[in-house]
Write a structure and sequence with these properties.
By secondary structure, the chain is mostly beta strands. Helix content is about 10%, strand content about 35%. The protein binds zinc ion.
């Protein structure tokens, strides 16, 4: 199975407050994200390797838009969404209403290197 078979994919728009680096004006932009929500379960024919990978998979969002066009009528320049992360993992316990908590950054694979040291 491919990794994309583990997820239900859909495109979503998230209102995001961005300021233009050219004119300095801030506006709310509808930034597009591809949402990959992990499926509840795998089909019966999935192999044990598929199941192992599936267990490790997590729901996430990937940003589609790299740039937005400034909404200031006298500027209208396109600028990059530089300050904003491109991948957001969704924990299953996360509540959508909790807007103050920042989603965790995509973490590199953890090694637990310090666990056995004193
Ligand atoms: Zn601008």
């Amino acid at each position: 199975m491919r990794e994309s078979d583990f997820f239900n994919e859909s495109d979503v728009r998230k209102p995001t407050w961005l300021s233009c680096p050219f004119c300095g004006q801030s506006f709310g932009y509808e930034v597009r994200w591809r949402q990959r929500i992990k499926k509840k379960s795998l089909p019966g024919w999935a192999s044990s390797e598929d199941r192992r990978r599936f267990n490790k998979a997590r729901s996430y969002l990937v940003r589609i838009d790299d740039k937005v066009g400034c909404q200031n009528g006298r500027c209208r320049r396109r600028f990059e969404i530089a300050s904003f992360q491109t991948v957001v993992f969704l924990s299953e316990t996360e509540s959508a209403s909790d807007g103050n908590r920042k989603p965790p950054a995509p973490a590199p694979r953890r090694r637990n290197r310090n666990r056995n040291r004193r």
